[in-house]
Amino acid sequence: MFEFSTIAGRYSVTRLLYTRGVSSSYLATDNRDSDRQVLLEVAPVGEVSVSRQLFLDQLSGLTDRLMALEHSNLTPIRSFLHDGPYYGFVKTFEGGELLEAWLEEGRDTASDNLRIGFCRDILEGLAALHSVGILHRDLSPRCIWLRAADEQSARPVAQIDHFYRSVLETEYTLDRELLLSTGRVAPEVSAGDAYSPGSDVFSVGLLLWEILGRARRRGLGELETTSSLSEEEIRDQVPAPYSEVVIRATRPSRLERFQDGLDLLAAFDAMDIERRLGGAPDAG
């Protein structure tokens, strides 16, 4: 938690909501509009592998790209924030919870339709990111926000969040991996190869397994390598036909996975159609 009551001379911090890695999220009031609450996600600039100004410029450009998307399965960002040693994002405040909390407390009693809906939400968000050349690079239950149900949606909606490690594919360099947590990265990234859309696909494949799996969720510490998640285990835990999508998404070889989020979404939708029709094609 960072010690400040006002940031950027505009936002008055009300309370800390949660902490994720190096960042903390605060509920705050916009001093120019006392009736408007916002969510500030803030992190220290710290040591980066490129010049500090270049790092901040790249994040500012990323923010512009994210704001232009205005996608319902991405958390709504209002602006980029930089104040001295801190940087971050100003977001629209919407009630809800992290997927991490739902996996621990709500998954076991959730309907199949709700689970499948969350999966499609996440895949829609990833496809939107990849369609404009954004690599997320940190897809985990702590980086998915479940927006509370409202007049626009009868169920909670999953939104990809936490863009601190995201980067435009055109600006990506291998040394950016110095900033990346290794908890859920694809095997090729752990081995020192460059990150790609297929690496995001691997991380999302693990999310699909956790959301759809029938067995009790294992802790991340137990899931150390992709080899610890066998095809037999996936087929046993994840309902058909989605198990075949999870298997292909989490294959150790990047060449054997779906190419990107758009490819993965298309396969998932095809499986959903087959499920409704009572059959299942081969996911590859």
Order of helices and strands: EEEEHEEEHHEEEEHHHHH
SS strand fraction: 15-25%
Q: What gross morphology would you assign?
A: globular
Helix content, binned percent = 25-40%
Which architecture of the largest domain would the CATH scheme give at its second level? Orthogonal Bundle
**Helical stretch count?**
8
Can you count the beta strands? 11
* Unreliable sequence segments: 218-227
Reading side by side through the largest sheet, how are the strands ordered?
1-2-3-4-6-5
Radius of gyration: 19 Å
What's the CATH topology name of the largest domain?
Answer: Transferase(Phosphotransferase), domain 1
Question: Please, how many domains?
Answer: 2
Distance between the termini: 45 Å
Largest sheet: 6 strands, antiparallel
CATH top level of the largest domain is: Mainly Alpha
| pLDDT averaged residue by residue | 84
Q: Structural class given helices, strands, pairing?
A: alpha+beta
Task: Describe this protein's structure.
Helix content is 34%, strand content 21%. It is α+β, with helices and mostly antiparallel strands and 284 residues long. The chain folds into two domains: 6-92, 2-Layer Sandwich (Phosphorylase Kinase, domain 1), CATH 3.30.200.20; 96-277, Transferase(Phosphotransferase) domain 1 (Transferase(Phosphotransferase), domain 1). Strands 1-2-3-4-6-5 form a six-stranded antiparallel β-sheet. Strands 7-9-10 form a three-stranded antiparallel β-sheet. A hairpin with a 2-residue loop joins strand 5 (77-83) and strand 6. The chain starts with 5 loop residues before the first strand and ends in a 7-residue tail after the last helix.
